[in-house]
Amino acid sequence: MTDMTKMSQGIARVNKKNKIGHDRVFPVVNTLILILLMIVTLYPVINTVAYSFNDGTDALRGNIGLWPRVFSLKAYESILSDNAVYQAAWISASKTVITTLLNLFWTSMLAFALSRREYVLRKFITTVMVLTMYVNAGLIPNYLLISRTLSLSKSYWVYIIPTMFSCFNMIVIRTYIGGLPDALVESARIDGAGDIRVFWQIIFPLCMPVLATVALFVAVGSWNSWFDTHLYNAGKKNLHSLQYLLKMKLATTQASANAAKSSAEALASTTQTTPVTIRCAITVISTVPILIVYPFLQKYFVTGMALGSVKG
Amino acid sequence: MKKFLAAFLALAMIASLLPAALADGGLEPITLTVFRGDPGDQPDENNKIYKLIEEEFGIKFEFEFLAGDLDETLGLKIANEDYPDLFDGGNSADLIINNGALINLLDYISPEKTPRLWAHIEPQKARIIEKDAEGNDVLYIIPNYGLGEGEQIANEINGPAFFVQKQVLEWAGYPQIKTLNQYFDVLEKFLAANPTDENGSPYIGFDILCEDWRHFCLINPVQHLMGRPNDGEVLVDVSTPEYKTETFIDKPYAKAYYKKLNEEFHKGLISKDTFVMNYDQYIAQISSGTVLGMFDQTWDFGNATNALRTAKMDNKTYIALGLVYDPEYVDGKEIEEHYLNGSVPNIRRGFGISVNCKCPERIIAMWEEMLSEKWQLIFNWGIEGEDYYVENGRLLMTKEQFAQTQDSTWQKANKARAFFESSPKRQGWILEGEFAGNCWEPGNQPEIYFDQMTDYDKAFLSAYGYQKPADFVNPPIQLAPYGEAWQIDYTPVDIEHQDFLNIQDKRLPEMIMCDPAEFDAKWDAFVEEITPSATAFGDFMQQAILKEAAKVDPNVVLPE
Amino acid sequence: MSIVRNAQGKEIRAKNKGFFRTLFSQWQLMVMSVPMLLYVLLFNYGPMWGWVTAFQDYKPKLGMLGSKFVGLKNFEWLFTRQDFINSIRNTLAMSVINLVFGTVSSILLAILLNEVRNRGFKRTVQTVTYLPHFLSMVIVVGMAQNIFSSNGAVNALLMNLGLVREPVFFLGEGKYFWWLVGVINVWKEVGWNTIIYISAMTAIDPCLYEAASIDGAGRFHKIMNVTLPGIRSTFVILLIMNIGHLMEAGFEIQYLLGSSVVMDWSQTIDVFVLQYGISKQQYGVATAAGMFKSIVAIILLVSANAISRRLGEDTLI
């Protein structure tokens, strides 16, 4: 308790001092640079949104800026009118949550174990883990392992089990833990805590910023993946993920644009959506959930989750 | 209570009898797994056509469509021997056939057992039925398209052609454009007189799309200028039984075309950007009405044509022209134009039945029944009174009815596309019965076809004294005995073929953009670079074409 | 002095005990790490028998046991092709450019963000800059193509400034290609890549800034002496990992941005394998290329790790 109050006082003090010490020019220049950067990165995003709300046929002409030229909801309608989208969104959301939690659990625990210098298996396990990032057996052996040896295809588990762990994220967490003061662990041990307790009670809560980062990486990866559905669950309608469905929608729109039709058929189909707007609407639909979740993670990225109190 | 019980028992009895009744007819309900080698929409749960199929045949479908790369997907299915019941390998069907994934349909199809299916393939059976390694007759896939009945329907060019905006011809006083020089001549003159459109955007004389597989816009025109329909990347001399086959891109007559393009590039008709633009940019240019001409295939820019029409720029839509070389390019020879070919059976495209399927008889029996007039009308036209109507023996649709057939949301509930597109089907004209003289497909039915034509197009055509766009070119010629050469499976020379394409893709744009003084030297270097792969590919194609032709033409002598 | 305590808190001198005794005393760490070890052995190393196909004329139908062994033929085929050699060069060039541009830009942005005191503004900038990460490559490349075309914004700017007399053919000349890829990648990923550095900066002890202020250090000095050292280990670890990834330059951006006229500069190993590997049923060749990439990656990784150790920096392994 006292630690916490000390910590927050510390933050307040630091901020105050920094503000006083400001020189005048830097903040202005910095703000200008960041605003410029925002404009440069925001343009393609707004442009994409503008396209997604534009009439499909008109959008083919290109040259749409920050606002739709001929407003239309057709692209969204054609995607969202399909009931399968909602089932798929549920599949995607649930697998994202489960995968993220499992990842955080296993990855952070392993990261802690591998951050302990005294651990005799440290070097061996680290090496084995790290190499997984660089060796790839190729598609066919992986496919056979999952669908034949483990019989995971045509099931929900294929979304969860093969994606429970990522070495990159483990390293990120390990590096973060490595930056924490050793004294934390040592003092806990003196109090008689075992490694598992040390990890859960002391290290894990302090890792929130990096766990938020890793959660974001894992969640975005899981939410955006379509290849697993394509490989293993394409024939199972009720297990389709949202991204797979959206990908299919785009592919279908593209294929129908290229289908050899009689001119009579082509003429009658002028109200159709086109790949250009569908692609943009898909981007918007799949990004909005991430935008909604992000602020909840972002609050962990605040400078000064001070550890000073512990050190002092 | 007793009454209720009795009713319940009665119901239960009926319910238990139902499957038995079905089983009597051998119609135990089954679900077939289906793979389509292209993307598609899952049909709605209560799609009316699939309901009918389920009622009549007791068969339901579970569809899998292609989302990723076709070859990769098929490779995995083969490695795992994980085949669906109905297997459509799309453009890579050769891969599944060569790996033994499909059963030989000839074990189930015969004039006695399946008269309709037999009658359907009979006219083209020499082409469709192949020999396997042991020399047995085999048929793995009944072509999904191209087995038309009656006179070939050719209202328009749907394939390759040189295109020109209608306004260019209108401006020039509706001239006849038949040769390469005439074509670029009219483009040059129009561009000189009208450098920009009404909004001040500059016109582009001639676009060449080079992106990925769409590079046919760059590398295919020469064969057509030489007077042959689409044989892919080879030119075949069909006048002799030797069917002399050569790659055309490395020949002097090809040089003439690219030299012409080089000239036009320096005259400003072709822009540098055309060689690096992607498909979307190409469509954007065409849709904004600033591209005067290009070589392409009609379907490749169908969306852009729609955009032009919706933007009320009918005069900037295109007409397909069948150009040939002027005699000066080919030693004074007069070349006869042939852009339209006889209708081509889509060999090795469509559903095959996999070796894992437990009930091939059921599928064959279903297809057999579905080739009846009743079912073909259901698939093509829908339900009478709902989707179409009949008047004086004519099959007709209102404008609204026809428009909804093109709406993908409507299709999901009311069309059986995913199944029907890859199944055997009847095309062309209905030759007998009460509807004789109608077309199997609504889009070809003359009433509907001409009803859809815009007033601008009618006026444009009548200025030439024509009825339909295809009148700009010669009527279809007879299909060569070997079919169309692009259908041939060239897997054995795949690598050489890829090299062959890569060199063209790389060098042709360079030559079109180069200093005219350097052109000849560059061309010679190109020919030297491409000769090894061109020879390998050309030699293979020569053999393959002879083999194909020998099926139909008894005069062909196969080399030892 | 390495001191290990078991669950009861009893001190053991690790050096004096046998390996297994120590291991046994570390059972809690094993509980935390061995399950994932088994997991990767199954999922990542299990399929490694697939590497056998690099020495085979692999046919999916025949499988690994039935396919014919061809020795080193697949490797020979690859390394005698000029375009494969080219694609190695292109891959390395583009990934080095990406690595340098990407790292520098994201650290720079992280520092700038770290200096923002207004929380709302900071959050907004962060959210906005990472958004392009979610745009598909097709959209981003499409936009870049418009911007860099002959009549695009960049050429218009250069002409207006009088820097060039006629439009630069950015998309059609090989010498620009690698740099374009670098620029587009930075544009798309800078915000996203910053997240990891920002989270690393949260671990910096605010007292350090305080102490520096008391010593009279200016902003620049604080960045140099507090912020940068604070993210040093993250930087080093990411650098080592990315050096191992130098053989991966991706294929989507090259595939989309490239055209036949710049093929000699745009083709990466992955694009080459896509064109000549699986789609031509040359499965053995695809595996051989993958194996080659893995081996080079491991060599690069181990060297980078060793150099880092020599320099007294953090190490990955």
Structure description:
The complex is a heterotrimer of chains A (312), B (560) and C (317). With 312 residues, chain A is mainly α. Chain A has helices spanning 2-21, 25-52, 56-59, 74-80, 84-115, 122-131, 139-149, 167-179, 182-190, 195-206, 208-224, 227-233, 242-258, 263-268, 275-298, 308-311. Helices cover 71% and strands 0% of the residues of chain A. In chain A, α5 (84-115) crosses α8, α5 (84-115) packs across α10 (195-206) and α5 (84-115) runs antiparallel to α11. The longest helix of chain A is centred in the first third of the chain and has 32 residues, at 84-115. Chain A is globular. Chain B is built from 22 helices and 16 strands. In chain B, α11 (252-266) runs parallel beside α21 (494-513), α12 (279-287) packs parallel to α13 (302-310) and α21 (494-513) runs antiparallel to α22. In chain B, 45% of the residues are buried. In chain B, the strands form 6 sheets. A 4-stranded mixed sheet of chain B has the order 2-1-3-13. In chain B, strands 8-11-7-12 form a 4-stranded mixed sheet, sandwiched between helices. Chain B has a two-stranded antiparallel ribbon with strand order 4-5. Chain B has helices spanning 2-24, 48-57, 70-80, 93-98, 115-121, 125-128, 166-171, 180-193, 216-219, 221-225, 252-266, 279-287, 302-310, 360-370, 373-380, 399-404, 408-414, 417-420, 446-452, 455-463, 494-513, 519-552, and strands at 30-35, 59-64, 86-87, 130-131, 137-138, 148-149, 160-165, 204-207, 234-236, 245-247, 291-297, 318-321, 352-353, 389-391, 394-396, 427-428. Chain B has 2 domains: 22-102 and 104-139 and 345-379 and 419-434, D-Maltodextrin-Binding Protein, domain 2, CATH 3.40.190; 160-342 and 456-552, D-Maltodextrin-Binding Protein, domain 2. In chain B, 41% of the residues lie in helices and 10% in strands. Chain C is mostly helical and 317 residues long. Chain C has 2 domains: 1-56, no CATH class; 72-310, Orthogonal Bundle (MetI-like fold). Chain C contains 15 helices and 4 strands. In chain C, the strands form 2 sheets. A two-stranded antiparallel sheet of chain C has the order 1-2. Chain C has a two-stranded antiparallel sheet with strand order 3-4. In chain C, β1 and β2 (11-13) form a beta hairpin. At the A-C interface, α1, α2, α5, α6 and α7 of A face β1, α1, α2, α5 and α6 of C.
